[in-house]
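Subgroup meeting minutes
Present: P.N., E.W., G.H.
Scribe: E.W.

1. P.N. recapped why we're keeping a running log of single-chain structure predictions: easier to compare across weeks, and new members can see raw inputs and outputs side by side.
2. G.H. added today's entry (99 aa).
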Amino acid sequence: MVTGFDVLLRLSFNVFKYRDRYTIVVDIFKTIANSRKGVKKTQIMQTAKLNHYLINKYLDVLFLNEFIVIDGYVYKVTRRGMEFLQNTETETLRLRWRL
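Output recorded in log:
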């Protein structure tokens, strides 16, 4: 079974120069999750430090895999997206304490 994150891993490597995909996805999730009312695309672009081309690519993948929803011009994290964010934060903490 292909998950949403597997799709992100298949994106071309030459598009991403400074951060890995995992970090970018977590930045996007954190930006959206910090607002109860949702966040506009421009705010996500500025906070995640992505250009228009890349933000569209990431948001499309996250939307198609039901990690986020679009409510008018506003993006919101779904329950599945929140679970993903919590799991990634847990794994990050686990890895930090191992080092």
